[in-house]
Write a structure and sequence with these properties.
The structure holds 2 protein chains of 2 kinds.
Chain A: E1 7-19, H1 27-35, E2 39-52, E3 57-61, H2 68-76, E4 83-88, H3 97-100, E5 104-108, H4 120-130, H5 135-148, H6 164-176, E6 182-186, H7 194-211, E7 214-218, H8 222-228, E8 231-236, E9 239-244, H9 246-253, E10 256-266, H10 269-276, E11 279-284, E12 288-294, H11 300-310, E13 311-319, H12 323-333
Parallel strand pairs in A: 3-7, 3-8, 5-6, 6-7
Antiparallel strand pairs in A: 1-2, 1-4, 8-9, 10-12, 10-13, 11-12
Helix pairs in contact in A: 4-6, 9-12, 10-11
Chain B: H1 2-21, H2 23-50, H3 59-79, H4 81-84, H5 86-91, H6 95-99, H7 105-111, H8 116-136, H9 142-168, H10 170-173, H11 177-186, H12 199-208, H13 216-222, H14 228-258
Classes of the chains: A alpha/beta, B mainly alpha.
């Protein structure tokens, strides 16, 4: 991580007051409490610390209700945290809104920024005026995005007549017109088909490499994270449970490899049994084996060496767990998961 | 300031384009509004067939009142309709999109609801009323008329401040449509000569929901029923009430924003 973070959150806490259910009360009291309920705090974010360096592309993941969007909203100044400190580009987001929001771009995947009844270009012109982008710069950026995101045929169409994928491409262009230094993406690929997702990922990857801006992405699409992010933060029940490289996440929570072997004959049955001892064998046939290796118990190299010595191997595949498998494991096992989850398919 | 004016212009152009997109609705609404105005004028004509004066008001001065009420309604519904539905923007979390822009979120929340249709509807009505006022020979002082236009414009700002303040209660209550409905139900008072109402109600319409400046006062001034010093005093009072509402709405907005909870994921 770089020395001077672009985003710094310390002990970030956000709680809401929610009505308390009147347990064991009589009907009159229940009626009274349905109008005048007691309130209790619901803590959506529990003291999250986060530092993001310049140029990082960070994936922020967690199950529904884990606090991902709340974090984004605190970092963008939409919400005022209950406790904790936030500093993004030297600004306190909710206090320095006017200056701060010039420096950031935000996409809420579930909320459109464009005007439903008007041609896309009208929204772009509005954003030009909102951000006071000079005309020449605006034209240059719009041309650039028109080419990269293939917006040409879309600009003169009313937003309501665009497909979700087309709309999202326009939203991305609109959020980048003013050359933000930090981009917050809250589920940008939600509801999109495979082609649309790929097109958006390709653009984001290219744009990030080209401009070197800092991007924070929340998503449920693990492919987004695997394709785009060099660092991932996992959130569970409002608490940060992992922060590090993708490879480290996989190694820590699901340190396994799936080994598939296609063989023509068994050369040494006794040695084969010894080779298979540290493995969980999922399928074993006359000419094929599918096994899972816990890399804490034996190294992949040792196991492969034993297998090649005991079998005449036609083909051998070693796959690491997919991020989807890792995340499912973490979500299912709580905030402090133990390794040893089932292997995913590569 | 220049940037904000440019932004307001952009939003107005956008609303015009949106209005043209639904031109069928625009034409139907224009005809409907004209019919409604014709019925209102007919109603007052029937009243004044039986009496030449009603609490100091004549048919002519009521026509002038109707003109100003049309103007008030045109400006409010064109530029400030967003203040009437702001509670929904807050309640549904749509405020998020405005809070991440380098412009006052209130301007964007209201500005993105600019709607040119009421302006076009009332333009037809206003022209018809002006023609009628001249045709029946209503006693109009045209200099006073011009000054009264300024009062109507400020009255619109004032009423929208009352409305947004009521809408901000959504930050605390989750929804304030009841408050909004209540304020909306006061809107028709603009069409009536408020000096005919009981004194208590007149006080409310002056200091709390200051609709007396929307059409009643401008009509009285235009028809010479009140003098210029009295109009000046009323203008000063209106500005004072406006300042009070500005500070109140700003304080409520800031406190409300600190407890904003957004909505959804």
């Amino acid at each position: 991580m770089a020395d001077s973070p672009v985003i710094r959150a310390r002990a970030l806490t956000k709680s809401y007051l929610v009505p308390k259910r009147p347990n064991g009360a009589g009907p009159l009291r229940k009626l009274w409490k349905s109008f005048f309920p007691d309130l209790e705090p619901f803590v959506a974010l529990k003291g999250v610390d986060l530092e993001v360096g310049p140029g990082e592309f960070i994936g922020y993941i967690g199950p529904n209700g884990s606090g991902k969007s709340t974090t984004i909203k605190c970092l963008t100044g939409v919400l005022t945290p209950t406790e904790g400190e936030v500093d993004v580009l030297g600004f306190v987001p909710w206090r320095d809104r006017a200056e701060y929001t010039r420096q950031i771009g935000v996409i809420f995947g579930q909320k459109t920024l464009l005007f439903w009844d008007l041609a896309v270009i009208e929204s772009m012109l509005l954003f030009r005026d909102v951000y006071a982008v000079p005309e020449r710069e605006f034209r240059r950026r719009l041309e650039e995005f028109t080419e990269l995101l293939e917006l040409g045929p879309l600009l003169d169409r009313p937003v309501r007549k665009l497909s979700l994928g087309e709309r999202m491409r326009c939203e991305i262009a609109a959020s980048l017109l003013h050359s933000p230094r930090v981009l917050f993406l809250d589920e940008p690929t939600i509801g999109l088909d495979a082609l649309a997702k790929e097109s958006i990922r390709a653009f984001l990857r290219r744009y990030h490499e080209q401009e070197g801006l800092t991007i924070l992405l929340t998503t449920h699409q693990m492919e987004d994270i695997e394709t785009l992010c060099n660092r991932v933060v996992v959130l569970g029940s409002g608490e940060k449970i992992f922060d590090g490289a993708l490879a480290e996440l996989k190694a820590r929570y699901v340190p396994t490899r799936e080994i598939k072997v296609l063989f023509s004959e068994v050369l040494d049955a006794e040695r084969l049994e010894r080779a298979l001892a540290p493995l969980a064998v999922h399928r074993r046939g006359n000419d094929a084996l599918t096994t899972v290796l816990d890399t804490r118990q034996a190294s992949t190299g040792d196991v492969v060496r034993e297998l090649t010595a005991s079998l005449r191997i036609v083909d051998l595949t070693i796959s690491e767990p997919t991020l989807e498998t890792v995340v499912k494991y973490i979500y299912n096992s709580g905030a402090t998961p133990e390794p040893g989850a089932p292997q995913g398919r590569a | 300031m220049r940037r904000y004016l440019r932004l307001v212009w952009r939003l107005t152009v956008m609303s015009l384009k949106a209005g043209i997109e639904y031109r069928g609705t625009l034409m139907i609404m224009t005809v409907w509004q004209f019919c409604f105005l014709a019925l209102t004028v007919l109603f007052w004509k029937v009243i004044f067939l039986r009496t030449s004066q009603f609490a100091g008001w004549t048919f002519h001065s009521v026509l002038v009142l109707q003109f100003f009420s049309q103007l008030f309604s045109a400006i409010f519904n064109t530029f400030f309709l967003g203040s009437h539905v702001l509670w929904r923007v807050i309640n549904q979390g749509k405020l998020d999109s405005f809070l991440v822009r380098p412009v006052d979120p209130r301007l964007l929340a209201i500005g993105t609801r600019f709607n040119i249709v009421p302006a076009i509807e009332r333009l037809v009505n206003g022209a018809a009323l002006l023609g009628l006022i001249v045709w029946v020979g209503a006693p109009v002082d045209w200099l006073n008329f011009v000054l009264a236009l300024g009062m109507v414009t400020i009255a619109v700002l004032l009423f929208s401040m009352v409305q947004v303040t009521g809408n901000y209660l959504t930050f605390w209550w989750g929804s304030s449509d009841a408050v909004d409905e209540f304020l909306d139900s006061l809107f028709p008072f603009v069409r009536y000569p408020l000096t005919t109402m009981p004194p208590g109600l007149q006080m409310v319409m002056t200091f709390v929901v200051p609709l007396v400046f929307a059409a009643t006062m401008p009509a009285l001034f235009t028809t010479g029923a009140i003098s210029r010093p009295a109009f000046l005093a009323a203008s000063v009072l209106m500005v004072a009430v406006g300042c009070a509402w500005w500070f109140l709405q700003d304080a409520v907005w800031k406190r409300g924003l600190a407890r904003y909870e957004s909505a959804g994921g």
